[in-house]
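ok posting inputs for the magnesium ion job
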Amino acid sequence: MTTVLEQVNRQAVTDLAASPASIEGAAEVPALLVEHLTKRFLVGRKRKPVIAVNDVSLRIRRGEIYGILGANGSGKSTLIRLFSTLLTLDSGRVEVFGHDVQREEMTVKRVINRVSVDAAFFKKLSPHENLSYAARLYGMDARPAKAEAIRILARLGIGESRLGRPLEQMSRGMQQKVAIARALLTSPTLLLLDEPTTGLDPRSKLDVQTFIEEMRDTHDATIVLTTWPRTPPTVSRP
Amino acid sequence: MSLMAREMKASFAFVERNFNLTKRYWGWEFAWLIYSIAGALAISLIGRSEGSERLLLVLVVGAIFWNFLSLVFEFIAETVQWERWEGTLEYTFMAPVRRYAQLMGSAIYAIGYGLVHTAVVLTVLALFFQLDLSHANFATAGAFILLGSLSFMGIGIAAAILPLMYVERGGQMVFVIQSVLLLVSGVYYPISVLPGWMQAVSHFSPATYVLDGVRAGLIEGTPVTALFGDV
Ligand SMILES: Nc1ncnc2c1ncn2[C@@H]1O[C@H](COP(=O)(O)OP(=O)(O)OP(=O)(O)O)[C@@H](O)[C@H]1O
Ligand SMILES: [Mg+2]
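and the output
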């Protein structure tokens, strides 16, 4: 089950090693360094182990947009969860800008953010209320955060007038845009996107894509995503 | 930003979020309030039907008190469950917030919410029964309420740890603790009617002492100085 995923990652790693750019880059601290990462889940009464991530290694440089591709159930989401400190590793090592995800959890948490397939919100709260919660969690002041949220959402085509009503009144695609805005709000230097544009129309996908590329250029952000909209997922470098 | 200020700010995230949730679910809040008032009245009316003003007061104090404690406990027990239900649990756990900031935030909001809610129930009960508090010693009652609030903050925070530590079972644990407290603390009866081993357990519940103190102050008018041993 994990073969597709492994292949993509192996290829990416070897690719990097072959190019002169990465030999130079080897001196700098990678945005994300993964070495022999393995994660098992114990399922059912018999606690049968299911291997979700099997010996994955990768090295992603600062400013890269890195795609992870794999069949359903191949462990993409699990991998993203491992990077975002939500799961404990069974073996191997994950470092974000040189900080170990387990030993320096707080430092890692401050520089990452993640958008998942399911827009996780308090559905009765408005986008403003949800984003204010997010901003405070990340130690931002509410007022500038609000202004920033309005700016980002306007870029994604959501007007200010929609931001005061319960989120459940928005379409799924719009909710997903709010989720993307929430992640961008905290200016993460490593942005983890798990199928971020699922449910968006082609135009919106393009909006998000352009915005994310802009993020990388202006904020020096590194982006890891599963499935890239429209174009087949590839490993791209700036 | 200093670490402390950062944590305080993060705690406030939970207070503000919960306040917003209360506001958005106001229909449910109203329903809960009616339920609490009806419950407290129903129990207190047993005292009236027995024709005992003393029993009435004992029950009113018990009902008010239990209203507060159970609200705080339920709120805390449900914090994690609620997030799981909304699907925000992973988002919250991914944020750079220490568990104790989350804990402080939930506990502070739960206690504030419990106090406001209970004040409304108390007002309705006082008006309904035209409570005669002429013998009451408010200094004693006040002292114990203050003491009680502090100890409940302690219990509240201790209880809030469980759902955060044991994401799977914490909520259930808090629920069980709450039930046991109801039984052993003498909320509606003197603990002397309990079997011996239960009485022994009741000495570990701060609620027992708070209830004793508040009742002694409100009903018998005992001055606070006479209850120093209890404090
Ligand atoms: N919490 C969990 N408990 C038990 N097993 C899990 C858990 N999460 C994931 N798994 C298992 O791990 C494997 C990988 O799941 P994962 O969600 O990472 O796949 P995915 O690549 O994201 O799939 P999809 O394309 O459908 O999103 C699956 O076999 C899944 O059943
Ligand atoms: Mg997935």
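notes: Helices of chain A lie at 3-18, 20-25, 76-83, 105-111, 127-137, 142-155, 172-185, 202-219. The first strand of chain A starts at residue 32 and ends at 43.
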